[in-house]
Amino acid sequence: MSRRHENDDVHALMEAPLATQRELLARWGLPEAGLLILMSKCLGRCFFCAQRVVTNPPPAMITRWDPVDAWLEGNRTQGVARLCLGGTEPPTHPDFYRTLDRAREVGFTEVELMTSAVQLAHPVIVQRWWDHGVRTICAPIYGATAAEHDRVVQVEGHWERLVRGVDLARRRGMSVHLHTLALRRTLDALPGLAAFVRDRWETRLTVAPLRPKDMFDYRAEAVGFDALTATLADADVSLVGFPTCVLPDKPRQAPLLIEVYFKGQRTTYAEEVCAGCAARERCPGLVAMHAEVHGAEGLTPR
Q: Does the model's pTM come out above 0.90?
């Protein structure tokens, strides 16, 4: 997969030994955790992501056990409590439960998991994840109805399994965090989705910018900041990955996995308006491709 749109610093973080990750996260002002990636088969076919190495990866693309085991062993000396487990869909990895078992052996006491949550639609799986230390799940959602969500994920029945899975996870005691993307095709429905997430799961929906990739037309799908501001002005959402001057009154709170994931895209600043901004030091900037498509539209520097 091409990395031309990606942030090399974040890739270096995800591939680093645990001791180095601790140093980098502290330098970025982020909470302490271990970040481990398991590449395996995804259970969705989202139009902005799906390609063969994601939906049906060859064996060479699936994360091998030996480097996972060696990385986990680093915690015997580091003593980090929280393991953030991401990837394409970690629960489909052949060593998923083996990873969770070893994580507990080496001192991790809680797991934050990035997942589609569709496998959680079975109570037995929910209990098994809980017994293996999963305490937080981060899951994407693209609509408040099956029609809206499944149109993006392109798998019939995905929304129903996701909703049931999150219901059961929350009932078991897991913290649940839902995030979505700013897409033109779902923009008008975002306030309704935010209300659905709040009312059903008593949590705030996180909205993030679309990541440019080579398998779809970014120009046709990416939302401009003026349109986003107009749509979400009264919505109960949190933001991640957007410039600080875009909807500045909205909270910027998200689980570490979501925050790091959306740091993974290459960003820039619109120098003609950002150069003298008083908030620049703490601003993540804007997606580089977004700047190419929309320029400085919607930016209001301080």
A: yes
